[in-house]
């Protein structure tokens, strides 16, 4: 059986990424896909981009990877842009939108937020029709066929749901989890590129990492928005919630 580790939303948090990559290696998984948001909120976006390019077979674009490449007036985003430099910004701007493949007779589609947009956010408690729409294809995807398994990142909240005979999952976040304060990723196992029905498995993995090291790295880098970043890492509570 083939195995794919699916990671997302690293957000410049190198200690979390290193912990997840170590766990993936120890499990003997050779193939890694990344669903975007490599950069920003944390202090190590440059190093994360370099390591992801080295370790991941396929990488798609997240909303942060998109808007960080555009001119802006935000001092925080300008700080991250300077850290990344032109070559990495060009890499992020050129990332594809989604990944599709057959596994054990099922069409799997992976994207950052929705099959239509990097900015269309869907939570596990949203209306059924909204969640079902995540199985649809779009002009942004390799095909417009309906997926039987759909996986995404963006919300930093790992979950699995079976809807109308199909499987929807969110991989959670490596570097900025907002459910529990451990890095999250998924292992998908089955027969890759096979149209024949066969066994398929999906496993969620949570990995502890050195949160205080991540915060110390941000302090040393004199990163903006440090207080909000530290609170999110320590509590798993989104900065937008008072």
TrEMBL record:
Protein name, entry field: Metallophosphoesterase
Cellular component GO terms held in the UniProt record: cytoplasm
Family annotation (SUPFAM superfamilies): Metallo-dependent phosphatases
UniProt record similarity statement: Belongs to the metallophosphoesterase superfamily. YfcE family.
Phylogenetic placement of the source organism: Bacteria, Bacillati, Bacillota, Bacilli, Bacillales
PANTHER family according to UniProt: BLL5683 PROTEIN, METALLOPHOSPHOESTERASE
Pfam family, one: Metallophos_2
GO molecular function terms listed in the Swiss-Prot or TrEMBL record: phosphatase activity
Domain Calcineurin-like phosphoesterase as annotated: residue spans: 3-189
């Amino acid at each position: 059986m083939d195995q794919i580790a699916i990671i997302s939303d690293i957000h410049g948090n190198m200690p979390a990424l290193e912990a997840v990559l170590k766990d993936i290696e120890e499990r003997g998984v050779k193939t890694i896909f990344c669903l975007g948001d490599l950069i920003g909120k944390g202090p190590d976006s440059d190093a994360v981009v370099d390591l992801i390019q080295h370790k991941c077979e396929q990488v798609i674009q997240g909303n942060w990877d998109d808007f960080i490449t555009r001119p802006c007036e935000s001092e925080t985003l300008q700080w991250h842009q300077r850290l990344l430099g032109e070559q990495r910004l060009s890499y992020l701007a050129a990332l594809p939108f989604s990944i599709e493949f057959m596994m054990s007779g099922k069409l799997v589609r992976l994207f950052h937020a929705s099959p239509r947009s990097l900015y269309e956010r869907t939570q596990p408690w949203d209306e059924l029709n909204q969640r079902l729409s995540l199985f649809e294809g779009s002009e942004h995807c390799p095909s417009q066929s309906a997926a039987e398994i759909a996986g995404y990142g963006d919300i930093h909240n790992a979950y699995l749901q079976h809807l109308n005979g199909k499987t929807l999952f969110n991989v959670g976040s490596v570097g900025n989890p907002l459910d529990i304060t451990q890095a999250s990723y998924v292992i998908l196992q089955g027969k890759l590129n096979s149209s024949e029905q066969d066994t398929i498995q999906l496993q969620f993995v949570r990995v502890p990492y050195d949160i205080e090291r991540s915060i110390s790295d941000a302090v040393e880098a004199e990163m903006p928005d440090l207080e909000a970043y530290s609170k999110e890492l320590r509590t798993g509570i989104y900065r937008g919630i008072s």
